[in-house]
Amino acid sequence: MSDRTMGERAAGQGLSFLGRVPGVAFVLVALFAIFATLSPGFTTVPNLSNILVQSSILLLLALPMTLIIMTEGLDLSIGAVLTLASVVLATVALSTGSLSIAVLAAVAVGSAMGLLNGWIIAWPGIPPFVATLGTLSIAQGLCLLLTDGQSVVGLPDELHTVYAGYLLGLPIPIIIGAVAYALMHLLLYHTRLGTYVPALGGNREALRHAGVNDRLVLTVIYGIGGLMAGIAALLLTSRMSSAHPTAGIGMEFDAIAAVAVGGTQFERGEGWLLGTLLGVITIGVLRNGLNLLGMPSSIQVVCVGLLVILALFLDGMRRVEE
Amino acid sequence: MSQAEATVPRRSLALSNDVLSVFYRLLAVGIICVVLSFISDAFLTTNNLLNVLRQASLVFFMASGLTLVILTGKIDLSIGATVGLSACVAATVIKATDSAMLGALVGIGVGAIVGLGNGLLVTKLRIPSFIATYGMLWVVHGITYYYMSGQSVYGFPAEFRAIGSGYFLGIPIPIYLMILFLLAGNFFTKRTTYGQQIYAIGANTVAARLSGIPVNSRLNLVFILSGAMAGLASLIYLARLNSAEGDIGETLTLPTIAAVVIGGTSLFGGVGSLFGTFIGGLILTLILNGMNLLGVSANWQPLITGLIVLLAVWLDMKTRSKTDASS
Questions:
Q1: Nearest CB partner across the interface for B310, out of A131, A142, A316
Q2: DSSP state at residue B317
Q3: Cβ atoms of residues B247 and B84 within 8 Å
Q4: For chain A, percent helix, then strand, then coil, each to nearest 5?
Q5: Is residue A321 one of the residues assigned to a domain?
Q6: Host H or E run for residue B51
Q7: Which of A116, A158, A297, B300 keeps 20 to 30 A from B145, CA to CA?
Q8: pLDDT of residue A102
Q9: Would you state the torsion angle of the CA atoms of residues B111, B113, B118, B120, taken in this order, to the nearest 10 degrees?
Q10: How many domains does chain A have?
Q11: What is the C-alpha to C-alpha distance for residues B118 and B136, in angstroms, rounded to an integer?
């Protein structure tokens, strides 16, 4: 697989475009049909809009996760970084009274954690899962030290209008999600940096011989993940009008699940953003539907895990057929 | 130069590297002990030292199974969650049947089943182990929370609690268990074909497969052992805490990985030992014990553990690339 040429790879992507769209889309349609039958409140416009609004936070995490997984990497810290950025946002907003400074601080902290991830993975070459498990623990530790395990409450009311507000008739989280998707699409498919991403996973050695500073590129990609987590922190904090030191824990699992369900490969440098978008919506539909059926979040997590196994199983069968 | 002549000196070099790395780690244990005994009067008391060893034994049970997995070049991130599920299921069985033995068997069995699930995800579905076991973490976690639904189970028979909090000849029982498993595990990894095959898979999976080692069944075995050891650790936790809740194992995975890595087992597989993991667990426990004695808030623990893990992996990679270059 790894010695395929770029041309063959592009052809393979064209083939798998047909082969894969039905994969995740089929699951999405099936889930949609199941929940539409089982719970009457599911197919209402407010609920469907609600699914998209709720999915926006996950989308912000899953988009950069796609790039990271395409480089044969992983970011387990993204949920903890999201939480840390949320706690920083709330703390700074309380102490300075300025929301814009608070948002800047959250994005800065998120980016810094992302760059730290990239740095320790790219330079000493620490395996991504253990490196980001370490930074996960560091981010959690910083959250504990900042909050002493307590929630940060009493934030300005205008914060809530970010998540609950509308712009041009559309909910603001959906607009933020759409803009993020467009920017990541541009980055991955229309910039030079984007062309390096699959090469980082597929053939890093060749990239280095071509004179590309592969380590710097890798660091930037993890940095983007942290930056997006910082922006997601704005939505998360705004949704709850407060910051909890455990709020985003485990969000990385949903993000990785969305990427996997979307058809991005863990070991071949192949991935696509549209699949991730569909994966995010699929998980949003699954969680929303289970919620409406009165299932606790513990069962939802199990179902997301089973969904991933199903998706990877189907993916493996299709690969055998090819 | 003939093959035989070339291999003899290299082997002795490898041996001396092993001995050296264990020596450095024992030296670290000694230094930490000296420093701690200077800064805290409470450190060099029999009670505290036995306490350190008892805590190290808990780390060792989880880390010994994980060591086998890491020796094959894989990872098991689901250990903490497995401890939680095993503890909760074992607790309800003990409460329902009043049989410590049955509860213990069920606890270890649950761990082994989770391990088998990990193994099958890795060998059958070919999912990278860090993804498969990370997914398993959350699935097992979800099952535990659903199973317990916020309740806790407490109050176990004295004969069961003895394995966690009992003493024999003035020494806590978990310490005896740790020594037993350390000796048995050392024999298994160093002196049996199975153990050597585990090293061979981690050193070069393709070569191991080509030389006829049943790689997939050995991988399943190490994941099952890792799960079963997590199940065993959960029993000791249960016996000590005398209560089981859904979040019981939540923070245990990273310290366990830390113990293995500090002990000199390479995350890339093929290099390391259970004895190293024992020392690694001891070093980690001593550091946490020292923080405790110095009155450092428990809030610092995740931050410190994270830094220790990164530092240990970094040091390991640095020394390894140096010895690779020199040999």
A1: A131
A2: H
A3: yes
A4: 75, 0, 20
A5: no
A6: helix B46-71
A7: B300
A8: 92
A9: 160
A10: 1
A11: 7
Classify residue A318: in a domain, yes or no. no
Q: Do B130 and A129 touch (CB under 8 A)?
A: yes
Whether the CB of A127 is below 8 Å from some CB of chain B: the reply is yes
Do the Cβ atoms of B306 and A76 come within 8 Å? no
- The answer as to whether A86 is a domain residue is yes
Tens-digit pLDDT profile for residues A284-307: 999 999 999 989 888 999 999 999
Under DSSP, is residue B210 helix (H, G, I), strand (E, B) or coil?
Answer: helix
User: Best of B74, B118, B120, B138 to disrupt the A interface by mutation (most A CBs within 10 Å)?
Assistant: B138
pLDDT values of chain B reduced to their tens digit, one per residue, 327 residues = 444 444 444 444 455 666 777 888 888 899 988 988 888 888 888 888 898 898 899 999 999 999 999 999 999 999 999 999 999 999 999 988 888 889 999 999 999 999 999 999 999 888 889 989 999 999 999 999 899 887 888 888 888 888 877 788 888 888 888 999 999 998 998 888 898 889 988 888 889 889 888 989 999 999 999 999 999 999 998 888 888 887 887 788 899 999 999 998 888 888 888 999 999 999 999 998 888 888 888 889 889 999 999 998 998 888 776 665 544
All domains in chain B, ordered by first residue: 20-317 (1.10.3470)
Residue A278: inside a domain, yes or no? no
Determine phi and psi for A253, rounding to 5 degrees: -65, -45
- Residue B184's CB is within 10 A of a number of other CB atoms, namely 12
Examine the pLDDT at A17 and tell me if it is beyond 70.
no
Chain B residues 27-86 with CB within 8 Å of chain A: 75, 77
> What is the rounded CA–CA span in Å between residue B243 and residue B229?
20
Could A142 and B303 be called an inter-chain contact, meaning their C-beta atoms sit closer than 8 Å? yes
Question: How far B172 CA sits from the closest chain A CA (Å)?
Answer: 31
* Closest chain A CA to residue B296: A145
Phi/psi of residue B154, each to 5°? -145, 165
Mean pLDDT over A64-84 rounds to 94
Owner of token pair 């089943």 = B113
Chain A residues with CB under 8 Å of B138 CB are 250, 253, 301, 304-305
Concatenating the DSSP letter of every residue in B268-305 gives TSS---HHHHHHHHHHHHHHHHHHHHTT--GGGHHHHH
What is the arithmetic mean of pLDDT over A60-78?
94
pLDDT band at A19 (very low <50, low <70, confident <90, very high): low
Rounded-to-integer distance, Cα B219 and Cα B216, Å: 5
Parent domain of A111 = 50-249
B304/A302 Cβ within 8 A: no
User: pLDDT at position B102, please?
Assistant: 92
**Residue A149: count of CB within 10 angstroms of its CB:** 13
**CA-based torsion, A302, A306, A307, A309: positive or negative:** positive
In this complex, do B261 and A266 lie within 8 Å of one another by their Cβ atoms? no
Distance CA B229, CA B180 (A): 13
